[in-house]
Amino acid sequence: MDGLGLDYVLIDCPPSLNILTVNALVAAHAVLVPLQSEFFALEGLSQLMLTIREVRQSANPSLRIEGVALTMVDRRTTLSQAVEQDARENLGDLVFRTVIPRNVRLSEAPSHALSVLDYDPSSAGATAYRALAEELMSRETA
Ligand SMILES: Nc1ncnc2c1ncn2[C@@H]1O[C@H](COP(=O)(O)OP(=O)(O)OP(=O)(O)O)[C@@H](O)[C@H]1O
Ligand SMILES: [Mg+2]
């Protein structure tokens, strides 16, 4: 990234659309949206899309949407299936093929102050996050 020796800088934002989030949208090249599959978060997503449009029209015209990543996915539940189907129907290719499953290792890792990639690299959660990173990188080179 621009002479800093970094490939990616991730700015982790709160879920609410406040001044901090908008500042991040102004500073960023792209937005990666985690979408929790446990409740209908699509309404919040349409508000985010409107905000992204406003930021494009003002401070950051080249801001792009990198993609929407479904998280906490449990395909055994009808709710999770419904959220995934709804997201794919409405957002199409914006939704990453890779989904992040509900995985207890992901919830344990922070209490050990570790990334899940260090805490349990072979867990389903770590495997899914690596696959998501690969998919993101392959989209950028495609
Ligand atoms: N895929 C998952 N499976 C199981 N637990 C998860 C998963 N993703 C997140 N969690 C757990 O859910 C909680 C919230 O996750 P996380 O901090 O990623 O959400 P957040 O929306 O960024 O929250 P915050 O607003 O606090 O930043 C944490 O306890 C985390 O360990
Ligand atoms: Mg967070």
TrEMBL record:
<dbReference type="InterPro" id="IPR025669">
    <property type="entry name" value="AAA_dom"/>
</dbReference>
<protein>
    <submittedName>
        <fullName>CobQ/CobB/MinD/ParA nucleotide binding domain protein</fullName>
    </submittedName>
</protein>
<dbReference type="Pfam" id="PF13614">
    <property type="entry name" value="AAA_31"/>
</dbReference>
<dbReference type="InterPro" id="IPR027417">
    <property type="entry name" value="P-loop_NTPase"/>
</dbReference>
<dbReference type="InterPro" id="IPR050678">
    <property type="entry name" value="DNA_Partitioning_ATPase"/>
</dbReference>
<feature type="domain" description="AAA">
    <location>
        <begin position="7"/>
        <end position="65"/>
    </location>
</feature>
